[in-house]
Amino acid sequence: MPDTPLASAQPVESLVIPARLDGRDGTNRGDARNSQLAARNDLDALRAWLANYADTQTTFDSYRKEAERLLLWAVVQSGKPLSSLTHEDLLLFRVFLANPQPEHRWVSASGGKYPRGDARWRPFNGPLSPASQRQALVILNGMFTWLVDAGYLRGNPMALLRQRGKPAAPRVTRYLSVSLWDEVKGFVAQLPQDTAAQQAYSARCRWLTTLFYLQGMRLSEVAAGRMGDFSRRLGADGLEQWWLRIVGKGAKERIVPASPELIAELIRYRKANGLPPLPGRADDTPLVIPFRGKRRCMSRSAVHDAIRSVFGNAADWLRTRGPEFADRAGELDRASAHWLRHTSGSHQADGGVDLRTVRDNLGHVSLNTTSLYLHEEEDRRYRETVKRHRMNWEARPASEPGSAQSDRPAQTATAEPDDH
């Protein structure tokens, strides 16, 4: 294939592939008489597979992205249909995921995200991390298995790949420490409010950071949420309780306590946007209100950019306070909306909130996932190790007069190493 950018970049829903590469004669095609799909080419087969996930936008987008990357790699890089890929091809694709080359063809020049109609669009924003590589292969293995089960393919070439053992899940590291979180709050609190635009920006920053932190929500959950998802009821003690209904992964619903602090911030945000203090059940105002245009839910990328703006501006603010803040500013430059979810879980877990409560608030399936937020346990282990396990090079030798060790009998060296 010629070494050109992906000029005809289209999603799988509208991509057009030359007949010789569309898979109608793929070498791994199953017997058409036994196929349970109407699809006669690879694109239609992928569309049929993706249709199973059309009701969950986040999953659909993730699966489409991986299928699209493999399809484009097969056609553009390997010059063969997806339904002709072999085990050896997929070994090469696995290497490709770790370092997409040639870079100018596959990787966004600035690492930014662009719409497909933009000439700067590329399938990758950079090499995939080991975790993202594993995720891609798991998704594609599921896709191939489904196509085999449907009779479209004879076999699954990905099933032959040796699955590298997944390392034990480490503690969550992409979160903000309490002190760095305090810096973010300090930045938001000092935002100027002299003009209407500044007041709107300040109100949004305060509400966004409050909502993500107190509720531990995912980016997609914040983007799709509406004010009417708040509801109140009386508790067993007769006191009013507020709750927030959240639709999470796999369209699973959960309700999360909305503290009086959060409701106070909700009232503050609504008043700043000219709304009544509290929402009703039929209120379809988005949880995050656009600055301009109709009051419809913002896209996930727009909410992502909004919270990144908070972190980026907070980082710049820190740098103005002196070079000693450079490292902390650099940490904020890396932060994203998901860091706030991790920050919420970490601060709850380390603050003594029961792990089962944290699990249910964040919508985790297992306590094993929630336990990854326990950082205080590791901090305590660090402090204990540093304090009690030392070399003590500065201590005087045992033979030196006045040493606490000087009156002890010398120990006889042994020829056997200590194997404990």
Automatic annotation (TrEMBL):
Q: Which GO terms describe its cellular component?
A: cytoplasm
Core-binding (CB) domain span: 40-148
Q: Where is the composition biased (Polar residues)?
A: 402-414
Residues making up the signal peptide according to the UniProt record = none
Give the Gene Ontology MF terms in alphabetical order.
Answer: DNA binding
* Keyword Cytoplasm appears in the UniProt entry: yes
**One Pfam family, short name please?**
Phage_integrase
Query: This chain belongs to which protein, by name?
Result: Tyrosine-type recombinase/integrase
- Tell me what organism the protein belongs to: Paraburkholderia elongata
**Taxonomic classification:** Bacteria, Pseudomonadati, Pseudomonadota, Betaproteobacteria, Burkholderiales
